[in-house]
Write a structure and sequence with these properties.
Helix content is 24%, strand content 25%. With 230 residues, it is of the alpha+beta class. The radius of gyration is 17 Å and the shape is globular.
């Protein structure tokens, strides 16, 4: 609890690297009943980080904290199709690094160790900071399946180089869970559906249009609750 409160205070105060602030364009074409629709949106180039340009690390957060950051920045959290589209169109697919499972996986030293491994991959790739990167974290995602699992978090991703995610969509963890493998990818609220601007939250809640960015029906509400699970 103390860690989450401190991280939220730092992020909301602006203690976030400058290279993370410029969103990158991504698009996906979805088909249904013979019709194809192109959806364009903008995403943070990497997972949420805390710190300066010279001293920062990627920080896992609980879904409640992630939603607070999204609300404060006019963004949303991704869905499974959005995560797949980001991976497919990333400038660099860094790939996963796994640490041994155990109680340490939810602690800051494990966060720091995994961040070191991710940074080493980034350096080897030659990708400059601000490049659209993917594959090195699981995403905290929105899904209609959470309507059947209140009080839980949905995670998905950590794609292997062949495009198959290590973590299929999973809702088994309670919503106070955050481990080293999790990341928070922010998605701009404005999306363009065949060139027409829409709000992504309204789109995901719309029973007629949610299929454009979600596979399992409308997400109502398209957000995580802010009630403290404490």
């Amino acid at each position: 609890r103390e860690r989450e409160e401190r991280l939220l205070a730092e992020i909301l105060a602006g203690n976030v690297p400058s290279w993370l602030r410029t969103l990158r364009p991504v698009e996906v074409t979805r088909s249904r009943k013979g019709d194809s629709t192109t959806v364009r949106f903008a995403v943070a180039p990497d997972y949420l980080a805390v710190g300066s340009d010279l001293d920062w690390f990627l920080v896992p957060l609980t879904p409640r904290s992630a939603q607070i950051v999204a609300d404060a920045t006019g963004t949303s959290l991704p869905t499974v199709p959005v995560v797949d589209a980001i991976w497919a169109q990333a400038d660099v697919r860094l790939g996963p690094d796994s640490l041994p499972p155990g109680p340490e996986m939810t602690t800051v030293p494990w966060f720091e160790e995994h961040d070191r491994l991710v940074d080493a991959r980034r350096i080897r790739s030659g990708a400059p900071l601000g490049s659209l990167v993917s594959g090195h974290k699981k995403d905290v995602v929105l899904t209609s399946r959470l309507s059947e699992r209140p009080g839980h978090v949905a995670i998905y991703g950590w794609h292997r180089p062949n495009g198959v995610p290590i973590q299929p969509l999973y809702t088994g963890h309670t919503d106070d869970w955050a481990d080293y493998s999790h990341g928070v990818r922010l998605v701009g609220r404005t999306v363009w559906v065949d060139g027409v601007a829409r709000d992504v939250v309204e789109l995901l809640e719309d029973p007629e249009r949610s299929w454009l960015l979600e596979d399992d029906g409308p997400i109502r509400p398209a957000r995580y609750p802010l009630a403290d699970p404490g």
